[in-house]
Amino acid sequence: MEFDPNSNPPCYKTVDEDIVIQQDDEIRLKIVGTRVDKNDIFAIGSLMDDYLVTFRQRPSVPPSLSPALLKMAVSGTLYTYPDNWRSFKAQIAAQYSGAQLRLRCSPPHFRFGTTNRSADFLRKFPAGKVPAFEGDDGFCVFESNAIAYYVSNEELRGATREGAAQVLQWVNFADSDIVPPASTWVFPTLGIMHYNKQATEQAKSEVRRALSVLDAHLQSRTFLVGERVSLADISVVCALLWLYKQVLEPSFRQPFGNVTRWFLTCLHQPQFKAVLGDVPLCQRMAQFDAKKFAENQPKKDGVKKEKKEKEKEKEKEKEKEKEKEKEKEAHGAAPEEELDECEQALLAEPKAKDPFAHLPKSPFVLDEFKRKYSNEDTAAVALPHLWQHFDPQGWSLWYAEYRYPAELSQTFMSCNLITGMFQRLDKLRKNAFASVILFGTNNDSSISGVWLFRGQELAFQLCPDWQVDYESYTWRKLDPGSAECRTLVTEYFSWEGEFAHVGKPFNQGKVFK
Questions:
Q1: Lowest mean pLDDT, pick from 231-240, 247-256, 284-293, 494-503
Q2: Which residues form the GST N-terminal domain (predicted)?
Q3: Which of 105, 132, 234, 300 has the fewest CB within 10 Å, making it most exposed?
């Protein structure tokens, strides 16, 4: 190794030793023997008789850590479930920083839904969320961005004050502008949540807007912040991962060439590849699979087993009662115990009657329609089923509109108004179905919906407990055979359409079922 003092800056021209990384304000590598390209070297100095080399950029060969420096690196356990894109952020960051992570994502070390609900886990991570990180020094932290930040180095976080602010800017952008619409669009294709056409189309529009912002920013840049990979790139790549794998087909991503170029550049980095492997890009936009969605719903096997066990217990109790009766017959019946006044009063109370018991039986089965609505496409399956089996003699359709729209302020409060009404009508669910929609924005909104009731009258009048909220609405009975009724049912039950009578944009909807 020869030092050239005449070079600018002065540096060693050749290096043929191994190196280990030591993190400081700059990337400095202690020479202990791996081949390093001479073009990477920026300057050299010494510290406590050890040579320290400062590099122009991170060497292409990932350096190993000396035992002394391993003590300085972050190390600990990362709890998560398999293929959790949120945990990828910390794993990729650790590949760059040298942090040592032990992954616990499968039995017997970690069982999602069980381990994260245990008392020991909740003592360390009160929210019970994953990913969660426990350092070897006892330090515990949850939330994926916080973990990724903790296991990173200064280069990833942003070496300057301005750089750190820009990194945080893009991390927040990923969480606020990419993740929500990506989830709405992608999750139905994975069978995780129900498909809603209007919500999906809105999500596509929001994804386009986010990609446009990124594409413009990356037009003259290789990475989001500075000239090297940072937490900004890691966070945004992870947020876009399922979009590129599931739905961003070539025609959709074609206008955003800068984003795709940057995305692939990041994926080809060894540190990304070590965690993500080969990521195939979507060739054909995935669609909602009703069958997969139904398969992913909680199975009722446990309920069936419980029923069988209860039936067995009842049979055993009956056998015991028969044996007791036989004993009484053999030895003479014992006098019955006298009931106190309270017990006598309870027995004298009439049992609660079904408010709909007076109505004749109807061929329309509401539960069948609800299953179709929950598990099948609304427009293609659920609504045709409704009109094919609807019994206009046994059921009625009503249009409801909130009387006091001027009093509605924040949309989240208006949404809570709908949710509260649904909760108070819980016992009505077997005989009713509704879709109620909040239209508009903060301080300019309205609430209206379409309800399906058993019988020909408003069901609220059958029980005092159901009358808390209904007077806050105007109610109009619909004619099932009219074009207006068909339009309202289609628009409100599918959450899409012109809603010409409202005059405000769709905000969000709630279904009572």
A1: 284-293
A2: 74-159
A3: 300
- Asked if 250 contacts 287 with a C-beta cutoff of 8 angstroms, the reply is no
Position 311 pLDDT exceeds 90 = no
Distance CA(185)–CA(205), nearest Å, equals: 10
pLDDT range class, residue 327, cuts 50, 70, 90: low
Nearest C-alpha neighbor of 360 from the set 385, 398, 391, 389 = 391
- Mean pLDDT value across the chain: 80
Closest to 54 (Cα-Cα) out of 95, 10, 93, 2: 10
Residue 195 lies in a domain: yes
Q: Whole-angstrom Cα distance, residue 29 to residue 61? A: 12
Q: How many Å apart are CA 262 and CA 223, to the nearest integer?
A: 7
> Which positions ≥6 away from 74 have C-beta within 8 Å?
94, 97, 99, 100, 135, 150, 151
The phi and psi torsions of 421 (rounded to 5 degrees) equal -60, -45
Q: Are residues 177 and 141 in the same domain?
A: no
Distance (Å, whole) CA 452 – CA 455: 9
Q: Tell me what pLDDT residue 343 has.
A: 54
Burial of residue 234 (number of CB atoms within 10 Å: 0-12, 13-18, 19+): buried
Token pair recorded at residue 490: 């289609």
What pLDDT, on a 0 to 100 scale, did the predictor assign at position 297? 66
CB 507 within 8 A of CB 440: yes
Q: State which residues form the domain around 60.
A: 3-67
Mean pLDDT of 158-179: 94
Half-sphere exposure of 409 (CA within 13 A, CB side): 1
- What DSSP character marks residue 64? B
Q: Is residue 482 within 8 Å of 488, Cβ to Cβ?
A: no
Domain containing residue 126: CATH number: 3.40.30.10
Provide the pLDDT for residue 134. Answer: 93
More confident call, 74 vs 173? 173
Residue 181 and residue 285 in one domain? yes
pLDDT-based confidence at residue 170 (cuts at 50, 70, 90)? very high
pLDDT at residue number 199: 87
Nearest to 11 by CA among 19, 20, 23, 3: 3
Record the tokens describing residue 400, joined without a space.
């409801």
Q: How far apart are CA 119 and CA 116, in angstroms?
A: 8
- What pLDDT was estimated at residue 483? 92
Q: Are residues 176 and 115 in the same domain?
A: no
Whether 450 contacts 399, CB under 8 Å? yes
Question: Does residue 14 or residue 195 have the better pLDDT?
Answer: 195
Entry field: residues in the chain: 513
111 plus 45 within the same structural domain: no
Q: Is residue 193 within 8 Å of residue 180, measured between CB atoms? A: no
The total number of structural domains that make up the chain? 4
